[in-house]
Amino acid sequence: MLVTRFNPFKELKELENRLFNYYPAEADESGISAFRPTVSTREGEFAYHIEVDLPGVKKEDISIDVKENQIVISGERNYKEERTDKDYYKVESSYGKFQRSFALPENVDVENIEASSQDGVLEVTLPKLKIEKAEVKKIQVK
Predict the structure, then answer these.
(1) What are the distances in angstroms from CA 67 to CA 23, 38, 71, 96, 113?
(2) What CATH number should be reported for the domain whose range is 32-80+92-129?
(3) What is the DSSP letter of 120?
(4) Residues 72-124: tens digit of each pLDDT
């Protein structure tokens, strides 16, 4: 018989992950789920990167603003009216306005932030400020 130690926190964490990762987005009056894009963030040697999955969102429908030490990415994924077959059994696509906000680290060069969109992925590059390392000055004790 294999003896394993029971870990209630592991079970609780797995339940939490299932609840928040697989629970469908809230639907509005039309039955269409709200759109909440997934985000990946990473730090490189010279810049921070934010990657936002925005399939079906045109770059003209994306807004990126920097205010009060935050970067705000917002926009709208529009419902496609050109569908001819309206007898869907289930629609898992989500539509609507979205907004994601991120606190900016102190060492971000706000004047040189860049963004590009390709294949449904928005990449925002936040370059780091070049901070000169202070020269060590030796103080003689008298």
Answers:
(1) 32, 22, 6, 23, 13
(2) 2.60.40.790
(3) T
(4) 999 988 766 555 566 666 666 677 888 999 999 889 999 999 999 999 999 99
Token couple for 26: 């809230």
Residue boundaries of the structural domains of the chain: 32-80+92-129
What's the pLDDT tens digit per position in 95-107? 788 899 999 988 9
Instruction: Assess whether pLDDT exceeds 90 at residue 46.
Output: yes
pTM across the whole model: 0.65
**Sequential DSSP letters for 6-70:** --HHHHHHHHHHHHHHHSPPPB-TTSPEEP---EEEEE-SSEEEEEEE-TT--GGGEEEEEETTE
